[in-house]
C-alpha cells in the first residue's frame, strides 16, 4: 500500500525549473523579477458540484489547473507556478496517474510547474484546490475596474457549448449523443487564454474570464468600473455545434452559460486594430459584442435593435447604480 509520501513522489514530484524550489521542502520558493507583482488566485473544485464523479480524470486534472490559469490570463499575468491541494476519498492509482498526467500536460504547456501542495484522505467526496502564481509588471495588470464609457466590449473564443454539454450530462436535456460529442470538449477541456491576456496588456482597459456566464461576469466589470453596457445578440460568437438548439435554450447558453473560460474585455474603440493584432499573435479569435455606456445597467439588443426581455438568470444581480 502506497503511503502519502509515495503518492506525492510518484505523481506530483517533478524536477523544478532552475531557480525554483519545488516539491519536497516546507515551502516552495520562486523568484519575483524586479518591478513585477505576484498575481495569485485559487479555485476549489468539489465532486458533485464542480465536476461529475465519473469525469475522465485526465480531463479533471487539466480543468483543475485550466480554471486557475484562466484567472491569470484575465489579469494579463505570466504563469510562474502552482500548488495543488487534494482530498482523496480512496487510493485509486490509475485514477491518480491520469489526473496527474492531465494536470502536468497543461502545466508544461504554460510553463506553470507544480511546486507544492497537500495531500490528505477525505471521508467522502473528492476535493481539489489549485493555487496559481503569476507575474505582471507593476501597475500593468488587467483589472476589472478600468472600463470606460465608449469602450468596445470583446469576447474571445465561442460561447454556449460548455453550458449545453453540462445540461446534457446532467440530464436536463434529452440525450443527444451527437450534440454531446460536439460540445463536451468545451466543458471538460477548456483552454485558458493566457497568451491573449498577455497580449492585451497596454490595450485593454479591463478584463475578466468567463466562469459564471457572460452577463454575470461582464456585470462584475461594469460594477467595478461604475459603468453600464449595451450588447448586440446577433454579434455573439455562438459555437457552431449549437445551430440546432431552440432560441430560448440557445440564448440561455450564450448569455448565461458558465464554464466558458474565455476572456471578456473592454478596450478603447481607437485600439480595434491593436486588439485584432494581439488576438492574431495569441492565436485567439476575438469578437466585438457591444459597447460600454456611462449609464448604469446592462441591455442586450435583439436582431431588430430591441432590448431583449427575460435575460438569463444572474442578470438580476447586476447593479443598476
Ligand atoms: P508538510 O507536512 O510540511 O505540509 P507534506 O508532507 O504535506 O509537508 O508535503 C511534503 C511535500 O510534498 C511538500 O513540499 C508539499 O508541498 C508537497 N506536496 C504534498 N502534496 C502535494 C500535491 N498534491 N501536489 C504537489 N506537491 C505536494
Ligand atoms: Mg502538508
Automatic annotation (TrEMBL):
It is an enzyme of class 2 (transferase). It comes from the Bacteria. Mg(2+) 1 binds at residues 42-43, 118. Mg(2+) 2 binds at residues 43, 71. Mg(2+) 4 binds at residues 26, 41, 71. Residues 24-136 form the PurM-like N-terminal domain. Belongs to the thiamine-monophosphate kinase family. This is Thiamine-monophosphate kinase. It comes from Achromobacter pestifer. The gene is thiL.
Amino acid at each position: 500500500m502506497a503511503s502519502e509520501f509515495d503518492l506525492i513522489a510518484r505523481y506530483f514530484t517533478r524536477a523544478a525549473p532552475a531557480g525554483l524550489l519545488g516539491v519536497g521542502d516546507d515551502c516552495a520558493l520562486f523568484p519575483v523579477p524586479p518591478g513585477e507583482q505576484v498575481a495569485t488566485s485559487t479555485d476549489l473544485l468539489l465532486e458533485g458540484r464542480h465536476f461529475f464523479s465519473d469525469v475522465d480524470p485526465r480531463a479533471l486534472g487539466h480543468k483543475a489547473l485550466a480554471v486557475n490559469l484562466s484567472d491569470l490570463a484575465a489579469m494579463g499575468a505570466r504563469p510562474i507556478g502552482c500548488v495543488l491541494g487534494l482530498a482523496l476519498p480512496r487510493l485509486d492509482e490509475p485514477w491518480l496517474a491520469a489526473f496527474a498526467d492531465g494536470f502536468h500536460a497543461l502545466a508544461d504547456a504554460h510553463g506553470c510547474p507544480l511546486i507544492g501542495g497537500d495531500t490528505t484522505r477525505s471521508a467522502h467526496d473528492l476535493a481539489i484546490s489549485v493555487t496559481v502564481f503569476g507575474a505582471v509588471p507593476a501597475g500593468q495588470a488587467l483589472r476589472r475596474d478600468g472600463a470606460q464609457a465608449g469602450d468596445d466590449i470583446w469576447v474571445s473564443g465561442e460561447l454556449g457549448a460548455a453550458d449545453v454539454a453540462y445540461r446534457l450530462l446532467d440530464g436536463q436535456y434529452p440525450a443527444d449523443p451527437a450534440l454531446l460529442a460536439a460540445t463536451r470538449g468545451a466543458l471538460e477541456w477548456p483552454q485558458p487564454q493566457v497568451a491573449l491576456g498577455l497580449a492585451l496588456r497596454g490595450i485593454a482597459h479591463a478584463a475578466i474570464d468567463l466562469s459564471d456566464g457572460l452577463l454575470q461576469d461582464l456585470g462584475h466589470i461594469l460594477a467595478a468600473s461604475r459603468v453600464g453596457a449595451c450588447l448586440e445578440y446577433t454579434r455573439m460568437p455562438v459555437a457552431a455545434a449549437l445551430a440546432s438548439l431552440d432560441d430560448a435554450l440557445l440564448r440561455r447558453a450564450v448569455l448565461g452559460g458558465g464554464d466558458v473560460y474565455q476572456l471578456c474585455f473592454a478596450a478603447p474603440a481607437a485600439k480595434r486594430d491593436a486588439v485584432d493584432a494581439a488576438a492574431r499573435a495569441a492565436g485567439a479569435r476575438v469578437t466585438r459584442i457591444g459597447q460600454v455606456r456611462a449609464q448604469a445597467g446592462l441591455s442586450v439588443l435583439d436582431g431588430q435593435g430591441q432590448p431583449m426581455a427575460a435575460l438569463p438568470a444572474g442578470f438580476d444581480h447586476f447593479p443598476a447604480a
